[in-house]
Amino acid sequence: MTRRRLPLLRPAAAVLVLASGLGCALHKANALFDAGDYEGAHEAYRQIVQSSPNNVKARIGLRRTAELASQAHVEKAKSIEAHGGPAEDIKAELEQALVLNIDNQIAKDWLLRLKNEEDKAKSQQETVAQMQQDAADQGALQINPRSIEGVDLNFTRRTSLREIFSTLSKAAGVNILLHSSYQDASVSVDLKGLTFQKALDTLMLQNDLFYRVVDKNTIMVLKDTAQNRDKYENQIIKTYYLSNADPQDVRQSLTALNPQLRIFTDKRMNAIIVKARPVELAIADRVISQLDKSLPEVMVYVQLMEVTETNLAKVGLLPVLGPSDDSGVYRMGATTTNLSSTGMNSNTGGLHIPTSSIQYLFPSLALDFLKSNGDARLVANPNVRVLSGETGKINIGEKVSTTQSSIGLPTGGITGGTTTGSTSTIPGLSGLGVGQTSYNYEDVGVKIEVSPRVHFNDEITLKIKAAVTTLKAGSTPGRPDLGQRDIETVTRLRDGETAIFGGLLKDEEQKQLQGIWGLTDIPLLGHLFGNTNTNKAKTDVIMTLRAVLVRKPSITPEDIAPFNPDDATVKSGPFAPKKAAATAPAVSVSTTSPTAQAPAAQPSQQPAPDASAPQPAQAPANPAAAGQGPVGAQRPPDAADLVFFIAPSTANLLKNDRVEATLSVSGGQGLSSGYLDLQVPPGMKVESVVPGDFLGGGSVKQAPGPNGTLRLTFYRSAAGQDSGILASVTLLAVDSGNQPLLIQGGQFLAGANPISARWVNALFTVQ
């Protein structure tokens, strides 16, 4: 018989061993989690889930530890970056964070940023934003003057405006037609060094005129009147497809800036359509590009814990009058009615109280020796991801029913009735009681509302509203006693900072003594004739908040720079220079160092341009002496609008002489930042580098460049003139011979788009 039972007991024993092993493994995983070893706990939970996929506790623990362990790797990557560690280590930590939690948006964005930095030179897939930029570069109104750089026209004597337009038309190769409303006048004006568009705008503003673009080679000049503008001024319709902003909000902002704009919204495509003049459309471009930004996002980690301790002691004698009586009061009384009399004596006219009607009530005594202890612990650890300016809500708990009774009465006469519990019965209605019981539900648990607002210095303002509702121990079903804790505050945290809200302590103690009057006042012995009720309750609430920026504000230097509406036509008008393709490399026209046997070979055979009024630099007259590369030799001289040149281009110096080499720019409209690699000859020493007026208050930083060059990195604080002095470099001659100062290369950006450039170098001879 025993041998027959053994095969049946073996599977049961195996099940018991497996369950015991899973319990031990789960206990070990919980211990690792409590110790803060989230990665070890994650591995332990993962093994449990593999062996028991339906283990709910292990699956929840696996998810929680994945998020925490992944965040720990992100914090380690931040520490490596703060200490100047290698990018490979940062990348390894971020990749490990994604292995643990593929939804870690911080690690995703960081890895993407690193990848973009590595693949900066590679072509990027065309996006909607790039298509919008390409369409903007094309322009709805295009005109092709012979040169958009500068015109040298100076009319110091009063000259007919018609003649000035004729001269300007011949210089630029653009037909200028005069409308019948045009009235000629004699003016004196200096247009030297101005671009064609700037010269045209100056004449329009000076003489109350405006022009209409007819075609690519023709414009018409009209008298500036409201009627002419409504009838003849160019109107452009443009559709903006918004990626982040709400069309109605953008429409309100544009209408507030310019009420005359005609704006239509399309909610289906999340787009707005604007019909406006070119100047107004340029302003709308700038405003919409700044409003259509993705909102920052914040991950808020909340930890809330409430600990409640209750002690109840009830000891002593308590007199009761009935099974349900707990008043604890001794009573003695008399009745005024007996079985044979109505109470009023009609013969004597007085009150008749027989002795048999006088009753003494001696209630029963109940002995209480109740003691109750209760401990409650509420822990909530929710995480919520919220957009800046929005509200995230968390509700963790349950609903507790509370019984309420309402009674409906008929309209007829009712003489009496009985009410029991929560249901009322009314007699006289054929035995049908009319009653209605209603139930209300109260939320018990944790409610948290978080509203973050991200600042542009990576700080976060959190508006917090937390409510903790608990069910007190010993509550009666249907009539629960609820405890309420509310926290409402506004705090400002740095990225990754933790705020702790503690000290919300509530300590209650109640004592009650019931007994026979007089006897309970006897010292020591009085408690034997009474009932003592002691109730203590202690509650402590602690809440921690940690805010982490998941997506930062996408603010660029162009967004911070001021914008002059008067320059709108310069930036996006029909004469605006078109940006080069994003993949176009910077093209240089460099020179080789002349040898000592041929000191007469100059890097440029043209005279040094005047720094005060720079002209577009021409190609060197002797390409062989200039040493142009194959790319530069094949390009026409005017293929690039941006030109850098050094003045003076030649100079004779003595030892220990100083020379100020001015690095000037021509055709720099739209140029916002970049760098130049300057090859300083060994016989000369750089003493100082001073930024020029072209930067408009920007900065120039110098640092060692590749192959022994000096890298000058510049940044323009605001868009200004299209030509001027970029920087002044003071050089000290320390050795004799030919000392060529060469621009070896660079990168030049108009916003985020690279543009091509040419440059002309200089040669100094030190004796």
Summarize the structure.
With 767 residues, the protein is of the alpha+beta class.
Describe this structure in words.
There is one protein chain. The chain is α+β, with helices and mostly antiparallel strands and 767 residues long. It has five domains: 18-118, Serine Threonine Protein Phosphatase 5, Tetratricopeptide repeat, CATH 1.25.40; 154-232, Phage tail protein beta-alpha-beta fold (3-Layer(bab) Sandwich), CATH 3.55.50.30; 236-294 and 556-560, Ribosomal Protein S8, Chain: A, domain 1 (2-Layer Sandwich); 301-335 and 356-404 and 437-551, no CATH class; 578-766, Sandwich (Immunoglobulin-like). Helices cover 24% and strands 37% of the residues. It is built from 15 helices and 33 strands. The strands form nine sheets. Strands 23, 25, 27, 28, 30, 31 and 33 form a seven-stranded mixed beta sheet that branches. Strands 9, 12, 13, 20 and 21 form a five-stranded antiparallel beta sheet that branches. Mean pLDDT is 72; it is low at 328-347, 411-433 and 577-640.
